[in-house]
Amino acid sequence: MTETKKVLVRTYGCQMNVYDSERMTDVLAPEGYEPTDSLDEADLVLLNTCHIREKAAEKVYSDIGRLRRLKDERALEGRALTIGVAGCVAQAEGREIMRRAPAVDLVVGPQSYHRLPELLAEATDRRRPVETDFAIAEKFDAMPATPAVRIAARGPTAFLTIQEGCDKFCTFCVVPYTRGAEVSRPLDRIVEEAERLAAAGVREVTLLGQNVNAWHGLGPDGREWTLGRLCERLARVPGLARIRYTTSHPRDMDDALIAAHRELPQLMPYLHLPVQSGSDRILKAMNRRHTAADYLRLVERIRAARPDIALSGDFIVGFPGETDADFADTLALIEAVGYASAFTFKYSPRPGTPASTRDDQVSERIKAERLSALQAAIDAQTKAFNASRKGMVMDILVEKAGRHAGQLVGRSPWLQPVHVDGPASLVGEIVEVRVDDVAGYSLFGAVVGEGPLPAGAAHPHIRTFTKEPARPTAGGAHG
Question: What are phi and psi of 127, to 5 degrees?
Fold first, then answer.
């Protein structure tokens, strides 16, 4: 009988890392490892790292330093602690991690998690393995199916990776170097995983990829399918009521995917569509290969297909060479689009990327000023969008218990957290909720109707309106 051990996976960064962390625990389960949130219980700690944020590597070394002290204390007690570094920092700096941090027992890149058991076996022999191959297809083929009981324990929503890597080579981004070239999982494997998730109680899946709408695969009709056709197929999975996807690139937003937003009630009216800048000069320097006008025309096409869609974006301020006029173009684009939310960042050089070597870097003071102005513009739009939901009756997927007794938390079709009072039996159910109040970035309301909506039904996202919704604009209510 395999001895039971405990593994703690600390996850940093994107949703892809959340999915990868879950799959790492699945890979380790046959080796006798059970997941834990307690550092005191852990026999193995894996740091699943992200390289997007500034000073990401320094944070990893700081965390390793704290774990080293715990490892030394354990050694005095006759207990072992194995430390592994995974993720994109591991991919980019594997050998350097081993040189600087002798307490680390193994390093594994994001495409090699399926090899964790054998790497752990090597690590016990003090060989301190470093595995950073780009074996994406091999990884997915080798991953074990997640047991139904483990799926159910994770709740009614799940991530499902369908694509990895990036071929776009934006000049600020390390993803092509840490995740490799674009690779799409086969259609049948995606459908099989979605069916397992739904059979175990998952009601909503979020399809993941570095460029998720670049996914393509051979369909059963012998033709090449893209993401829109995939969503259409997943919408037929019994019990699966909601579909989302992230992160998209504007250049991969094709007609079939736009049509899917119009035709599939399971596809939520929320789209994360990064643009990064509103300046054509900066977009060209970023190698985005689209203009601000291209992006705005695309937004018009999407909204024509799905008028109530909520748009989210990514913005970088202070890219090398960005002038006040360039930044003004970004603010103008934000006003023209009207976002429900956005992620905003100061540019920070990533080692090995073309932009990091430019000699026209923007000062930290100017970057901070521009970020503050950008966030103020986005925050005003987000608050207006959330305020426009007040008075609506909408379908909410209840995800978990809230912080207070009798409180439940779910998500609106537009991804906002929604708080209601109700019995714990509603977790995992889709219910009608009337939104009575908005506070901060959350909605508060009450369950209406006679209880959960029927499983397997294709529910409209909005049951009734108390007012006519309007297209989001920067200067008024969003709808």
Answer: -90, -10
Give residues with Cβ within 8 angstroms of 89, minimum separation 6. Answer: 49, 50, 51, 56, 57, 60, 97
Q: Do 472 and 338 form a contact (C-beta atoms < 8 A)?
A: yes
Which residue, chain included where needed, has tokens 């748009």?
Answer: 311
Cβ-contact 396, 434 below 8 angstroms: no
Strands 430-439 and 442-448: antiparallel
Amino acid making up residue 126:
R
User: Phi and psi dihedrals of 131, rounded to 5?
Assistant: -125, 110
Q: Cis before residue 178, ω within 30 degrees of 0?
A: no
| Paired tokens of 322 | 């960005």
Judge whether 232 and 265 are in contact, CB under 8 Å. no
Look up the pTM and report it.
0.83
Q: What are the tens digits of pLDDT across the range 207-264?
A: 999 999 999 999 999 999 999 999 999 999 999 999 999 999 999 999 999 999 999 9
Q: Quick check: helix, strand or coil at residue 320?
A: coil
Task: Say how far apart CA 138 and CA 51 lie, in whole Å.
Answer: 23
Please give the structure tokens belonging to residue 422.
Answer: 């109700």
CA dihedral 256, 257, 260, 265 (to 10 degrees): 170
Are 432 and 394 a contacting pair, CB within 8 Å?
yes
The pLDDT value given to residue 129: 79
In Å, what is the CA distance from 282 to each residue of 169, 377, 469?
Answer: 15, 20, 34
